[in-house]
Amino acid sequence: MTQRDAVIDCRNVWKVFGPRPDQMQALLARNPSAEELRAAGCVAAVRDVSLTIPRGEMLVVMGLSGSGKSTLVRCMSRLLDISAGQVAVEGQDIGTLTETQLIELRRRRMGMVFQSFGLLPHRNVLENVAFPLEMRGQPRAARIARAREMLELVGLTGREAHFPRELSGGQQQRVGIARSLAIEPAIWFLDEPFSALDPLIRREMQDEFLRLKGTLDKTIVFITHDFDEALRLADRIAIMKDGAVEQCDTPDRIVMAPATPYVAKFTAQIDRARVVRLAALVVPAAGGAHGAALPGEAVLHDMARAILADPRPQIPVAAADGSLLGLLDRQAATDLILGDRP
Q1: Cβ proximity of 327 and 285 under 8 Å
Q2: By C-alpha distance, which of 103, 78, 59, 108 is closest to 15?
Q3: How far apart are CA 83 and CA 115, in angstroms?
C-alpha cells in the first residue's frame, strides 16, 4: 500500500486521561501497560494504536464497553486531541491543522454519525438534514432537494416538517444518518449508527452502506457491538481491549486464526460456516484441477449443499475472473459446516 492509498494512518496513537499532563510524554515514552498507567493515576482510552486504512475500505471496530472504540474514532477525526503519536488523513497530519483548516476538512471530506444524534432542536427534520449543505454554501433549492432524497432513503418521507422532539429514538437516528449521507463524504465515521433501528430498517441501511461503499469508493470506520453486523459489513475487523488493538484482520482470519486468547474468546460462539469464504480454505493445486469450480468469494454456508453433494475429495475453487485459486479439502469444509472445531 502506498502512502497515497492510505486515507487514515494512525501511528502509535495514545489518548490518556490523567491528573499529570506535564509528565505524560515521559510516561508514554516507556510504552506503559494499562496497569502501570492506572498506578500513575491515568486511564489509557487508546493505547499505542497503529492502523492504516486504505481508500474504499470499511473497517469495523469492535470491543466491549470501555475498550476504546469511540475514543479511537474521535481521535481519527480530531474531535479529541491525542496524547502521543500521529494521525494522518489523506497524507496530512491533522494534529498540525488550525481550527479553521480542521473545520474545513470535516465539512468537505468527513461524515460523522455518533450515538448522540446531535440534531438541532429548533430546526425541523428537513432543515436538519440540509444543515451541513447550508454550511457549505449550497443554494437552498439544491440542498432541500438533496435532503428530501436522503429522507426517502432512510424511510422518513412525510416527516420533513416534524421537529426532533416529535420523533422516536430510531427516527432521530435515521435523521442523523440521512444528514451524514447528504454531504456524500469521502470518509465516514459511524459509531453504532443502526443501534436504535428496527431489524428491517437496520438491514436496509446495511445494504445501502454496502452499495455506497462499492459504487462511490468511500472509506468507512464503523463501530458496532453486533458481530453479525460486523461480519456482514467489514473488509477488516479491529478488536480492541483496554485501549489497544488485539487484532486487525479480515473476518475470515479473525474467526479462523485469532491472534490472542482474547480474540479467540470474543469469537468463540461465531458460526464459522457463515463467515468463512471458500477462498480462505484453499490449498495450492500442485497438479492442476479438473471439473467445475466453486466461487471463492462464496461463504461456506451458502455452498454447503454443493460441497456435501460433490464426491471429489478436493474441489477446485475459482476467483471471479475464472482463474484457479486452489483446492478445497471436502472433509475439512464438511467439518466446518457441521460445526466441528479443531
Answers
A1: yes
A2: 78
A3: 24
**pLDDT tens string 21-76:** 667 777 888 888 877 888 888 888 999 999 999 998 999 999 988 899 999 999 99
User: Which grid coordinates belong to 324?
Assistant: 484457479
Of the given ranges (60-74, 80-94, 101-115, 200-214), which has the lowest mean pLDDT?
200-214
| Tens-place pLDDT, residues 316-338 | 999 989 898 999 999 999 998 88
Type of residue at 133: L
* CA 243 – CA 60 distance, rounded (Å): 15
Question: Could you tell me if 14 and 47 are in contact, meaning their C-beta atoms sit under 8 angstroms apart?
Answer: yes
Q: What is the rounded distance in angstroms from the CA atom of residue 134 to the CA atom of residue 57? A: 29
- Give the Cα-Cα-Cα angle 227, 34, 264 (nearest 5 degrees): 30
Name the phi and psi angles at 123, rounded to 5.
Answer: -115, 145
Interatomic CA distance for residues 175 and 181, integer angstroms: 10
Supply φ then ψ for residue 312, to 5 degrees. -70, 135
3-state SS assignment for residue 340: coil
Taking residues 120-131, what's their average pLDDT?
94
Contacts of 36 (CB under 8 A, 6+ apart): 30
Length of the chain as a residue count = 342
* Per-residue model confidence (pLDDT) at position 79: 93
Per DSSP, the three-state class of 65 is coil
Q: How big is the CA angle at 196 (ends 192 and 197), to the nearest 5 degrees?
A: 105
